Amino acid sequence: MGSKLEGDVYYPSEEVINQANVKNYDDLYKRSIEDREGFWAEQAEELDWYKKWDKVLDDSNKPFYKWYTGGKTNIIQNAIDRHLRTWRRNKLALIWEGEPGDVATYSYHALNREVSKFSNVLKSMGVQKGDIVTIYMPQIPELVIAMLACAKIGAAHSVVYGGFSVEALAERIEDAKSRVLVTADGGYRRGKPTQLKSIANDAMKRSPNIEVCICVKRTGEECYMENDRDFWYHDLMGLPIASANCETEQTDAEDMLFILYTSGTTGRPKGQVHTHGGYSVYTSTTHRMVFDIKDEDRWWCAADPGWITGHSYIVYAPLINGSTVMMYEGAPNHPYPSRWWQMVEKYGITILYTSPTAIRGLMRFGDAWPKRHDISSLRLLGSVGEPINPEAWKWYHKIIGNEKCPIMDTWWQTETGGFMITPLPVTPLKPGSATKPFFGNEVGVVNDEGKEAKAGEEGKLVIKNPWPGMARTILNDEERYVNTYWKNYEKQGWYEAGDSARIDKDGYIWVIGRIDDVIKVSGYRLGTAEIESALVSHASVSEAAAIALPHELKGNAIHTFVILKAGETESKELAEDLRNHVASEMGPIAKPETVKFVDGLPKTRSGKIMRRVLKARALGQDEGDLSTLEE
Ligand code: PRX
């Protein structure tokens, strides 16, 4: 592997190298950069197309890149239809376990049947190509079925994470102008049923464009159903309209597959638009190469399908690659901290992909829980969502991977569709580093002028090229897409990720964290602006600021500063009330750790809150350049 690498390095074993789908990173990387379009054409050849593309990359209208233009495909053609013609028809596509312990399995044949039936239900409700269906569900198979059914008929889905609450849901329904909402009465989390339908009901009151709401009965808890608007999923699936025959719509490569919202620097969330063609190629290629996918694997991405990790690596990439996907509904430590390890043993999971926050959370219960189970089926591990601290990395490697499983620390974003910086199983690993760019990608760490940082120096992370999985735009807001990602390095044509990073002497990339007003809490991405507007929507609050401070388990935690309206008095109860208010507007993950009452907030002369100053003060650090601070 060339000269000796610096620092703490873990080299792959002979066994790992021998079985790897890609054995030499450097050679293929070089080729992928020299002939990027050739590389991506080759990968696209792995998939079925109704009609092949005319052009691999159309860059005539930068930064609105298009991939595989002229091509016709539908992600379902590759994720389901093509498997039905092979022995994989009877292979398990999905193994699902509910938190109470109930189990459901679907072969590709069965998945196709359910998806086709639900496609016909959606059609009967008037859903057409190009419509956006909002999905707000717990982690149950019907969530996957609903997503796939939308894709199959050429409609787009907008999945809103089931942990979000009324305001977040209403805002997203409104932005997407959805007519149809698919939801459930609830799901199970830590032994208790959640109340999704009642949140959905409140959201529908705030955003009246929903005409049809389809509700899955999961918990059987009572919930209000409105006549002529709300229908039970199982009722509809039993009607003659829900036939098991449905043609897959032949979409253009650039037709919208889904939107997924990310939090932004202003209050409004951004609907990232992904498309059928490029996304199919990018997610399946990254999955196959990075996780060395074989037909005998049992793949478990322990994320929520409601986030990009779940979209790309629970649903689409593994199904395109014909994998058996594991999915689990509930909390990792319910009823005991061995729940995950018990399932790894029970189902013979071979690859586990999760987040640093989950690893830290399970690590704290000690080694005895995993040791109680035979988890030797595992051959590869993965991490995503935030930088993994070396201590958690080493525990994961030693206790879960038994020192034989390489850890794929994958850096990417909702916007990128799939892995951008990642090792392969053959890459020598350094704990805490996502290592090297994936094929076709050139990554830089630069200063504001675009000058490359020296080895070890911190700078802004940029991607210097387009890639097939990239978000095409922000729904209804092209200008914001350009301004957020492409404006600062317009001259160079680089994509700005919003993260800071450094590159060491060996060319290994170390991502440090967000540099914008985005907070990563337990790997979930939240905007300070959304938290602040939730606070300001409370009757007692006049102004608010939210910042992130380090937290042992969550990575970051939310801390808030609140200016009360005249006449309001501070109290412990009010602080508690405000924390709960944010949770009920946005969701429990957004609940602030602390609420501090203040008389003023540090602001620039143009009125922008200087969160950097609040953070430095809270950490007892130097406040830095205060020249723009208002008196
Ligand atoms: O800050 C980076 C962090 O997560 C951000 C993207 O968040 P989201 O769109 O929610 O997607 C998360 C799952 C892909 C990035 O800007 N991030 C993600 N993966 C890593 C990471 N930070 C460090 N190391 C990672 N492996």
Structure description:
By secondary structure, this protein is α/β, with parallel strands linked by helices. The protein contains 19 helices and 29 strands. It has a 7-stranded mixed sheet, sandwiched between helices. The chain has a 7-stranded mixed sheet with strand order 12-11-8-6-7-14-15, with helices on both faces. Strand 19, helix 15 (390-400) and strand 20 form a beta-alpha-beta unit. Helix 2 (25-34) packs across helix 3, helix 5 (108-124) packs across helix 6 and helix 10 (276-290) packs across helix 11 (308-320). The chain is globular, with a radius of gyration of 24 Å. The N and C termini lie far apart (57 Å). 53% of the residues are buried. The model has no long low-confidence stretch (mean pLDDT 96). Adenosine-5'-monophosphate-propyl ester (PRX) binds next to helix 11, strand 23 and strand 24.
Label this structure with key terms.
binds adenosine-5'-monophosphate-propyl ester; alpha/beta; seven-stranded mixed sheet; globular; 631 residues; 29 strands; 19 helices
Outline the fold blueprint.
Blueprint: H1 14-19, H2 25-34, H3 36-44, E1 55-58, E2 66-69, E3 72-73, H4 75-84, E4 92-97, E5 103-107, H5 108-124, E6 132-136, H6 141-152, E7 156-159, H7 166-176, E8 180-184, E9 188-189, E10 192-193, H8 196-206, E11 212-216, E12 230-232, H9 233-237, E13 251-252, E14 256-262, E15 270-275, H10 276-290, E16 298-301, H11 308-320, E17 324-328, H12 339-347, E18 351-354, H13 356-363, H14 368-371, E19 380-383, H15 390-400, E20 407-409, E21 443-446, E22 459-463, H16 478-486, E23 495-503, E24 509-514, E25 518-521, E26 524-527, H17 528-536, E27 541-551, E28 555-564, H18 572-586, E29 594-597, H19 611-618
Parallel strand pairs: 4-17, 6-7, 6-8, 7-14, 8-11, 11-12, 16-17, 16-18, 18-19, 19-20, 28-29
Antiparallel strand pairs: 1-2, 3-13, 4-5, 9-10, 14-15, 21-22, 22-23, 23-24, 25-26, 27-28
Helix pairs in contact: 2-3, 4-5, 4-11, 5-6, 7-8, 10-11, 13-15, 17-18
Adenosine-5'-monophosphate-propyl ester (PRX) binds next to helix 11, strand 23 and strand 24.
